[in-house]
Amino acid sequence: MKAVVFDWDGTLVDSQCAYLDSWRVALAAAGRKITNPELQYAVGRAFPDVLHHFSQRLSVDPKKVEREFRKDFPVRVQAEIVRFPDAVTCAQELQKNGIDLAIATQTPRPEFNRALAVTGLDGLITTTVCRTEVARPKPAPDLYLEVCRQLQREPTDCLAIEDSRVGAASARDAGLFVVGIARSAQAKQGLNEAADIVVETLDSDMILGFCET
């Protein structure tokens, strides 16, 4: 492998809790309480997909839900976002060894840029593609295909690191080798269906073992 493409939420950083909490708050403002199992639909999925799903399933006003979500999430994510030490160390070691690095994320560009700056990772990974820059979000392969195009690499020469079944399926269908990072038992079950290898922590030596240095 000549390049490594990281997912963002749940892989490099933990803003997923903020993301899910903002959905909970937005839906509650629209008069609907949601259970934790129902909320899991949002994991790894793009905002429009999740908004359509909850609006249809819970019969809520999508405009009100979106308004409440966009009011809550930016404040919450900047206060709560946390870097995963194993993933950041892995990316740093890959960079030192000359491996091309990129991010493929479902997060819209404005929100992603703010979060990237907050985490200080903007100097580590400069090739990034957001779901607003491709025709279809994950689980379609578009995000990963666009990353490979920008890196000027064939998908078969790239390794993806993903924390969700949706993201792993996207990378797999684009032709990348997929390492699933299972940060929970629930995530592990879904990743086993779509990733080539599933691990519980990211080890830079293991990832470098797949890469051409």
UniProtKB/TrEMBL annotation:
Any one GO MF annotation of this record: sugar-phosphatase activity
Entry-linked InterPro entries: HAD-like_sf, HAD-like_SPP, HAD-SF_hydro_IA, HAD_sf, PGP-like_dom2
Spans through the membrane: none
One Pfam family cited in the UniProt record for this chain: Hydrolase
Protein name stated in the entry: Haloacid dehalogenase
Species of the source: Actinoallomurus iriomotensis
